Every structure is written in structure tokens, then in C-alpha cells.
Amino acid sequence: MAVAQGRFITFEGIDGAGKSSQIAAAVDWLQGRGLAVEQSREPGGTPLGERLRELVLHEAMDLETEAMLMFAARREHLAARILPALAAGRWVVCDRFSDATYAYQVGGRGLDKAKFEALEAWVHPGLQPDLTLLFDLPPEVAAARVAGTGEAPDRFERERRDFFERVRAAYLERAAASSGRIRVIDANRPPAAIREELLALLQERYA
């Protein structure tokens, strides 16, 4: 008997959007229904991807170098983990995917959109997440949350507010063009309210 293809769910949002606890809630919900779930993140997800993540987050570099490193890490992630998991019938829940590159590198930094589209078509032709959950909130709220963690910021987190306003706008642009793939969740609410909406969306889509 053929193995059913797994599903691919991604979580997106600017730094400070509060994705981490909601990803855990989603994984618990899926596993509670007997599904095999593989949880990962981008950039990262593989030993090579994690090394590239450190470079991208902490080393100054040319914009196009940055974009290509993001997609290099993504290609390794797809080959080593995402595609094998989906083929084996496992569900993949990932903190960020190509929507983040569009938002941060195209929207935030001004990468040529055609170059992004060429990389996307090369690295994962015909593949998009089955569902993307975009946690949306004002950049000033996100910045206050990041500052409250007490952790040293990476070079993205040190960007000015106008950078995150462009990132947020690009995320919302991508969502508007997604034909229902991207569901926008108001993240400027208590975590319990956000979790309730998240689980209702999963129930609606996958129950």
C-alpha cells in the first residue's frame, strides 16, 4: 500500500511575533491525532543549515550573498529532511520558509523580486507549504518583546523599525496573493487567545 503524502505547515512573522509557543501547541495538537510530526526551523534544520544560520545572523554580507545563503540552507533542508519526511507520510512543521526570505530580503532589504523568484523556482519548484500561519503584529510591539527577552540581538533584530515595517508589509502582500495558503493571525493579543484561533484553524483544515 502506498504511503500517504505528509503535509507541510509553516509559521511566519517578524521577530517577536511569538511563534515558538504556538508552534509547540500546533505540534501537540497534530501528535494528539496520531500524526507523525517533524519539527524544524529555517535557516537551519540540518547541521550544514545551522552553520549557515550562524553566518547569516551574525556576519555582515552583501544582500545577494545573504539571499543565496538562505536558499542554500533551504535546499539542504529540503533534501535532507523536508522532502523525505513528506514522502514517508510525516507532517512537517517549520518555523519559517521562503515567505520569510521574501519578507526580509525582498521587502526589508530590497532584493530584486525577480531574483527571489528565480531562486525559489530553482530550489523548490512546484512546492509550497500546504498551510502557512502568519503571526502579524505592529513592529513596535514586536521590538518591545524582543528587548524583553534579555538576549543579545542578532543583526536582523538590530534593524530599525522602518525595516520591520517593510518586512511586515511584504508578509501581508504575500498573504494577499496566496489564494488561501497563508492565514493571517492577529498576534497582538494574549497567547491563549492566539492559541485558540490557531487550533481552530487546524481543526477547520485538518480535523
From TrEMBL:
<comment type="function">
    <text>Phosphorylation of dTMP to form dTDP in both de novo and salvage pathways of dTTP synthesis.</text>
</comment>
<dbReference type="GO" id="GO:0005524">
    <property type="term" value="F:ATP binding"/>
</dbReference>
<keyword id="KW-0418">Kinase</keyword>
<protein>
    <recommendedName>
        <fullName>Thymidylate kinase</fullName>
        <ecNumber>2.7.4.9</ecNumber>
    </recommendedName>
</protein>
<dbReference type="InterPro" id="IPR027417">
    <property type="entry name" value="P-loop_NTPase"/>
</dbReference>
<feature type="binding site">
    <location>
        <begin position="13"/>
        <end position="20"/>
    </location>
    <ligand>
        <name>ATP</name>
    </ligand>
</feature>
<dbReference type="GO" id="GO:0006233">
    <property type="term" value="P:dTDP biosynthetic process"/>
</dbReference>
<dbReference type="GO" id="GO:0004798">
    <property type="term" value="F:dTMP kinase activity"/>
</dbReference>
<dbReference type="InterPro" id="IPR018094">
    <property type="entry name" value="Thymidylate_kinase"/>
</dbReference>
<comment type="similarity">
    <text>Belongs to the thymidylate kinase family.</text>
</comment>
<feature type="domain" description="Thymidylate kinase-like">
    <location>
        <begin position="11"/>
        <end position="197"/>
    </location>
</feature>
<dbReference type="Pfam" id="PF02223">
    <property type="entry name" value="Thymidylate_kin"/>
</dbReference>
<keyword id="KW-0067">ATP-binding</keyword>
<dbReference type="GO" id="GO:0006227">
    <property type="term" value="P:dUDP biosynthetic process"/>
</dbReference>
<keyword id="KW-0547">Nucleotide-binding</keyword>
<keyword id="KW-0808">Transferase</keyword>
<dbReference type="GO" id="GO:0006235">
    <property type="term" value="P:dTTP biosynthetic process"/>
</dbReference>
<dbReference type="InterPro" id="IPR039430">
    <property type="entry name" value="Thymidylate_kin-like_dom"/>
</dbReference>
<keyword id="KW-0545">Nucleotide biosynthesis</keyword>
<dbReference type="GO" id="GO:0005829">
    <property type="term" value="C:cytosol"/>
</dbReference>
